[in-house]
From TrEMBL:
Source species taxonomy: Bacteria, Pseudomonadati, Bacteroidota, Cytophagia, Cytophagales
Source organism, top-level taxon: Bacteria
Keywords: Membrane, Transmembrane, Transmembrane helix
Organism: Hymenobacter cavernae
Signal peptide start-end: none
Membrane-spanning residues: 81-99, 111-133, 139-159, 193-212, 248-268, 280-298, 304-322
Protein name: DUF2029 domain-containing protein
Length: 338
């Protein structure tokens, strides 16, 4: 509970400052429309990610009911505040899972907390928490997968699989990794969870299409052109962008100065690298590879890199705990205290 409260405190104040100072544009305005029930005004590529907007709408209704208790003069809260509460809560849960995964992987409490803070203190995490966006849920799903693979917890792995496709359809690219490394569960159970995930996504599509049909009448006709556009245009454009100075800055932006600590983890030779890398949860490298594919197929590379946040946080904790350079530094810093 204390770790969760720390995660909340890291997120809440910065995200609130962002909430009250930004102008809703792009994806933000689309998810707000979804929370208001205007799915027919939202492009097909976004309109089926209903979980976070629905939770935000539920929170908004609860807050509206509480406001009624204080009379008509009580101040009203914008819908963005409900998104802020939902996203901050989900991202704090992700932070807790990063901490627990680092502990299960062999890190002590201090480095595990540092790994969690390395992710939650990111300016882009603040952006997601304080905006009307739906990225907090898929980040939580990735963190849940990583914890389940590290702790070999079948129930959490199955829950993550079932929730993955309604959280973000692109997580389907990561499902083969989770299925392969989740070998502590039988194949029928893993494949059954995938079937449930697909069925849940189809049910969401059906309900949204029935109650909020697109003006053109063919809801799937808009999805395929968008997917083809991602492959044809974003892939080459992203590769060209990553080769530029702006692209390099976009890669360094999400985790700031903690990138230096991560880079140090790959110094000192193969033996030094193995001291921490062999303790990473199974499938960590493959998950990062999937995130690289997310970035290439997206117009927002920095935001997609946040999906590698759980792996990054655990890696930072293990580097601080086990890398020879880090161990030597901690001994030197602790010497005056003895």
């Amino acid at each position: 509970m204390l770790v969760f409260l720390l995660a909340l405190s890291v997120l809440a104040s910065n995200a609130y400052v962002w909430l009250v100072n930004y102008v809703p544009l792009g994806d933000v305005s689309r998810y707000q429309l979804m929370a208001l029930g205007h799915h027919d005004q939202v492009p097909a590529v976004h309109r089926y990610r209903v979980v976070v907007p629905l939770l935000a709408r539920l929170v908004a209704e609860v807050l509206r009911s509480l406001r009624a208790l204080f009379g008509p003069n009580a101040p009203s809260l914008p819908l963005g505040f409900s998104f802020y509460l939902v996203n901050t809560f989900l991202l704090a849960l992700s932070g807790l899972l990063i901490y627990r995964t680092a502990r299960v992987s062999g890190a002590s409490a201090g480095p595990a907390l540092l790994g969690m803070v390395a992710v939650l203190s990111s300016g882009l995490v603040t952006f997601v928490a304080g905006s009307a966006l739906a990225d907090s849920l898929p980040i939580l799903v990735v963190a849940l997968w990583l914890y389940a693979l590290a702790a070999r917890t079948g129930g959490w792995l199955l829950l993550g699989i079932i929730c993955s496709l309604v959280a973000k359809e692109q997580l389907a690219l990561m499902l083969p990794v989770v299925l392969f490394y989740g070998s502590f569960l039988s194949w029928p159970r893993r494949l059954g969870a995938v079937v449930l995930a697909g069925g849940l996504l189809l049910a969401v599509h059906y309900v949204v299409n029935v109650y909020y049909p697109l003006p053109g009448g063919n809801d799937q006709a808009e999805v395929l052109p968008v997917l083809l556009s991602h492959v044809q245009h974003h892939l080459l454009a992203s590769l060209e962008f990553l080769a530029s100075l702006d692209g390099i800055i976009s890669l360094l932006l999400p985790f700031g100065g903690f990138n230096l600590l991560f880079v140090c983890g790959f110094m000192g030779g193969k033996a030094a690298i193995r001291t921490w890398s062999r303790r990473l949860p199974p499938g960590s490298a493959a998950m990062v590879g999937c995130v690289c594919l997310f970035m290439l197929l997206s117009s927002d590379i920095s935001r997609m890199l946040l999906f590698a946040g759980p792996v990054f946080g655990v890696a930072v904790a293990l580097i601080v705990e086990y890398h020879p350079w880090s161990c030597a530094l901690w001994r030197r810093l602790a010497a005056p205290l003895r």
